[in-house]
Amino acid sequence: MSLFMGDVARFIDDSVLESLKLRPVAGLPTQIHISVTDRCCLPCRMCDIWKIKPSDEMSTGEWKGVFDQIAHWAGAVGLNFAGGEPFLRKDLPELTRYATSLGFSVTANTNATLLSEARVAEIASSGLDILYVSLDGTTADTHDHARGEAGTFDKVMAALERVDKVEKPRVIVAMIINRINIHQIKEMAEWTLERGYQVVYQPLFNTFGQSYDPNWYLSSELFPREEDLPALEEALDYLIKIKEADGHVCNAVGQLQEMKRYFRSPSVSNGLPCNAGHSDLSLDPYGNLLLCFWLPPVGDVRKTPIPWMWNSFASQRRRWEAYHCPRTCNMLNCNFEHV
Ligand SMILES: C[S@@+](CC[C@H](N)C(=O)[O-])C[C@H]1O[C@@H](n2cnc3c(N)ncnc32)[C@H](O)[C@@H]1O
Ligand code: SF4
Ligand code: SF4
Question: For the chain, how many structural domains are there in total?
């Protein structure tokens, strides 16, 4: 068997890796992000995934085969289903059930517009651990504006009522911070505490589904402006204070602190490490293996075993790119070191 660069990196001294500006290969990933579909049912303003024309998605059987492979290779890791809207896949509860039977801890992100009573019952019996529910404000005007469709807030509230009646999954509300919901950041923390949910705040980033442009925020209608920053920083300080008092805010204090700098200069490198390709690995709906969703894939799970791709020269090269990556998407919750 040939020795790939990933294998070599395990045997060389840390000082050599440092001089090569490479982080050591961290063994195996502990968190796998799976985009099960690019299809979506909402026209959000901060995300263009709904505009992607989907092609040949992996089938239920193909995904189960991938989970078997991951279980044999990396053991009981964390799996996160997202998309697009993952619940557009009718087989999501079946995939979840299969993954949890292998010992994975499974989470899913959703816009919560498709969670009928029957669907919630299926999810409840699937073993899903955490449901991240997107809610970009505490009132219909802020949430519906960001999500591009009137009535979305009411659908989320109705879905939460249904999920409240089942024991599992646990709910974590995910709120994207933008310029029109800054005044609701504090209220969201209070409301989620009252309802018995956790909450995670996500800084608005380059429109998802579009290629990266370092000047993206200059033309963004939703990105906070100079005059919004004092209120935003006050709200972040409030979150830091309550984070220390109780555990229902999921973001690390360091991430909340860093968000202040991020909202002042969103495209200036923060010098923080990124998990991409170290503890985290991603798959798209078509079987492409990615070290992060913004860099080109390193291979196709339909053709090549995952451990080969993980240890390949292409992956080691991506890790090098991730090490030098000046972008600030390492601030996003899926990439931030301590969330
Ligand atoms: C791409 S969505 C997929 C799951 C589902 N459709 C949803 O909206 O929750 C995954 C997460 O990315 C967030 N997101 C979308 N566009 C974003 C942006 N431009 N900046 C930061 N987060 C974003 C969503 O709010 C959601 O929490
Ligand atoms: S954020 Fe989620 S709901 Fe909105 S367009 Fe993107 S994938 Fe769809
Ligand atoms: S900061 Fe991390 S997630 Fe973002 S593009 Fe670079 S390597 Fe990928």
Answer: 1
Secondary-structure percent of the chain, ordered helix, strand, coil, rounded to 5: 40, 15, 40
Residue 339 included in any domain: no
Q: Looking at the predicted structure, is the pLDDT value of residue 5 above 50?
A: no
CB atoms within 10 A of CB 279: 16
Closest ligand 1 atom to residue 206 Cα is 19
Tell whether 223 is covered by a domain: yes
What distance in Å separates the CA atoms of residue 224 and residue 181, rounded to the nearest whole number?
A: 10
Residues whose CB falls within 8 Å of the CB of residue 272, separated by 6 or more in sequence, listed in order? 258, 330, 331, 336, 337
CA of 10 to the centre of ligand 1 (A): 35
Minimal CA–CA distance to 96: which of 60, 71, 144, 138? 60
Pairing relationship of beta strands 31-37 and 280-283 according to DSSP bridges: parallel
Q: Which helix (H) or strand (E) holds 283?
A: strand 280-283
* pLDDT band per the 50, 70, 90 thresholds, residue 6: very low
Nearest atom of ligand 2 to the alpha carbon of 40: 8
Q: State the CATH number of the domain containing residue 312.
A: 3.20.20.70
Does residue 196 fall inside a structural domain? yes
Which residue range is the domain that position 201 belongs to? Answer: 5-331
Distance in angstroms (rounded) separating the CA atoms of residues 35 and 110: 12
337: in domain:
no
Of all protein residues, the one whose alpha carbon is nearest to atom 5 of ligand 3 is 294
pTM: 0.92
